[in-house]
Specification:
By secondary structure, the protein is mainly beta. The protein has strands spanning 3-4, 7-8, 10-15, 25-32, 37-42, 62-67. The chain is 0% helix and 42% strand.
């Protein structure tokens, strides 16, 4: 588990249904940052789970930040 400002991240295992790594599991950490933002960081298939909620150059990690649209 990684620590992030405002709390602790949770982990998930995600198996791709299609694409170049179909059938392979990617390990990830995620957190909700407030009521309107969700952040998830995936490690490449076959690699260790990320230790922090960041995708630094050279790690191969992919970071997604989802923000609720204001209406």
């Amino acid at each position: 588990t990684a620590t992030v400002s405002g709390g602790t991240t949770k982990s998930m295992d995600w198996t791709r249904a299609n694409g170049p790594d179909a059938g392979k599991t990617m390990l990830a950490v995620y957190a909700f940052r407030g009521p309107d933002e969700y952040v998830v960081v995936f490690a490449p298939a076959g690699k260790d789970r990320p230790k922090e909620l960041d995708a630094k150059a050279g790690t191969g990690h992919t970071m997604h930040v989802w923000k609720r649209a204001k209406s």
